[in-house]
Design a protein that fits this description.
It is built from nine helices and 14 strands. The chain has about 350 residues and is α+β, with helices and mostly antiparallel strands. The strands form five sheets. The chain has a five-stranded antiparallel beta sheet with strand order 1-2-3-5-4. Strand 9 and strand 10 form a beta hairpin. Helix 4 packs antiparallel against helix 5, helix 4 packs antiparallel against helix 7 and helix 5 runs antiparallel to helix 6. The termini are far apart.
């Protein structure tokens, strides 16, 4: 995605590529933010402001990703530019999960692809149009019930992929996102803590009040197998998480990618919850089994999902409403604020979870 245009004093090189495709995208029905317009004049020009205090002064953190607004209805979308010669299956697998009847299955937590745009200047490049999602770990979780809802959806989603013979092969923490159901304000895509106009922190409700839906993204190294292939074997391919036990052995050895997916998700839950929150210890046994060093000893996703249903059946409403405290939210104020919310939920009869035992 290197740009062939002259440098811009305020844009990174990869941002210039997006600016060069501003008009093409607008013709296709998607408008980039003002920062990427060919006519952009920085809003801090001839003022006492600095760029980092302005909405259009924040550099996009991802070279191949950029947000846009769908002109037809104003919906915010995520654009992802991919090299189809390097990732030949990403579009095929993404479209497969968007096809009927899979797209109507509540167990499907694969990010939808609204459209695929062929880049006119390069036959190897395509732009995927998807919903704009955000970090699934921010804001912090507040209750056991919120954690249960999240993990239920993650187990359900990976189980769904495996049922349809697709191995994700990179389902690590950064490839788990959520929608914006919690948010009162639109957030700034390059600085999610702030509102889109950069005037205040993006206001939000809790996950109990407005439960988000969680999604798996990035099928760049995913593979779909024939149903008859019950033990597919592949050479290791490194995703974002480099800690997979199988990859520490001979690199030329073939491995089944499905147990590797189980390890990836177990490690993601370890990092997101067990390493950062108190009150989630009930997950430790299952997560430990998912991360077994011997892939033959790991449960498959059907077993993981079934065991989780048994675990959650043992959690009372009181436990589901109880606090999970993030390591940097353990002050007396945080404790009192949690109890105030908890009493409000009880009075208003807001249930502690929105997913149900399957």
């Amino acid at each position: 995605m290197a740009s062939t245009s002259s440098p811009h004093p305020h844009l990174a090189e990869y941002e210039v590529w997006w600016r060069n495709h501003y008009n093409f995208l607008k013709e296709k029905g998607y408008e980039l933010r003002s920062r990427y317009s060919p006519d952009w004049v920085p809003s801090w020009t001839n003022t006492n402001k600095v760029d980092l205090d302005c909405e259009d002064g924040i550099v996009s953190p991802h070279y191949m990703l950029l947000d846009a607004r769908r002109i037809q209805d104003g919906a915010r979308v995520q654009l992802k530019c991919i090299d189809v010669s390097r990732h030949p299956f990403e579009i095929e697998i993404g479209r497969y999960f968007c096809s009927s009847p899979l797209d109507e299955d509540p167990g499907n937590h694969c990010v939808p692809i609204y459209e695929v745009l062929q880049v006119p200047t390069d036959d190897h490049l395509a732009i995927l149009v998807m919903p704009l999602l955000r970090d699934a770990t921010d804001p912090h979780f507040d209750t056991v019930g919120e954690v249960v809802d999240c993990i239920h959806q993650l187990f359900e989603g990976l189980r769904f992929m495996h049922m349809h013979h697709v191995a994700h092969r990179d389902c690590m923490q950064l490839n788990i996102l959520m929608d914006g159901s919690m948010f009162i304000d639109e957030w700034h895509p390059s600085f999610e803590y702030k509102s889109s106009d950069f005037k205040r922190p993006a206001r939000h409700r809790t996950r109990t009040q407005s439960p988000p839906r969680y999604y798996y993204i990035d099928f760049g190294i995913s593979r779909k197998y024939e149903a008859s292939n019950t033990n597919p074997l592949e050479l290791p391919i490194f995703g974002g998480d480099k800690g997979v036990p199988e990859f520490r052995e001979d690199y030329g050895k073939l491995w089944n990618p499905f147990p590797i997916d189980v390890w990836y998700l177990g490690h993601a839950i370890q990092e997101i919850f067990l390493d950062c929150y108190s009150g989630v210890e009930f997950l430790s046994g299952l997560v430990s089994d998912m991360m077994h060093t011997d892939p033959a000893q790991r449960p498959n996703m059907d077993d993981v999902f079934s065991r989780f249903q048994i675990l959650r059946q043992g959690l009372s409403n009181r436990k589901l409403r109880s606090r999970v405290a993030h390591f940097d939210e353990r002050s007396l104020f945080d404790f009192i604020a949690h109890w105030a919310r908890r009493l409000e939920y009880i009075v208003r009869r807001i249930p502690p979870t929105r997913t149900s035992v399957s």
